[in-house]
Amino acid sequence: MKIGYARVSTATQNIDMQIEALQKEGCEIIYSEKKSAFSKRPELDNAIKSLRPGDTLYVWAFDRLGRNMLEVMSNVKVIHDKGANVYSVAQKIDTDTQVGKMMLVNFSLFAEMEAILRRERAQAGIASAREQGRLLGRAKGITSRTKKIAPLAKQMYESENPRYSVRQICEHLNISTRTLYKCLEHENVEKSRGGLEGSVLV
Description:
This protein has 2 domains: 2-112, Rossmann fold (3-Layer(aba) Sandwich); 138-202, Arc Repressor Mutant, subunit A (Orthogonal Bundle), CATH 1.10.10. Helices cover 49% and strands 10% of the residues. The chain has 7 helices and 5 strands. The protein has a 5-stranded mixed sheet, sandwiched between helices. Helix 5 (144-158) packs across helix 7 (177-186). The chain starts with a strand and ends in a 16-residue tail after the last helix. Mean pLDDT is 80; it is low at 194-202.
């Protein structure tokens, strides 16, 4: 079965040309994304899911299958694993032919180069940030849940009758020691106890 997939790449692009080209190729079913989307493409997912062994997914060009070469090759692999093929109308490339398979090898090399360049750019960015003294990683702060339990953590920590150990407070609130001290810091509590476990006086 010939199954078509069309997608606009910009908000102003008209999808009719792609659909008309797919119809001329004899596509019996055409899935189309009429809105430009960066992440979710439900119709592409539906098109790939509908494929059966021997089917061919027709697209206007290979770039319709992903945001970058890595994603394109990933989707092509999924399609091939299902026993189906891909045909690009504009590029006239059929992945079921020898020429198409050779083109896929080239695409794979481009995808690998793209992955290497991305890693190099990421590493260069990290090195540059370190040189400039910028801190990397997750920003400091506490979650909304931690903020909600912070007053209770303070009350239990400062309680004398009964006196709770750090371990008991953590177990009661279902938090880690680190989170407990974040709560106390949020509540401006001076952490004066000697040791993390503390003693319990009931």
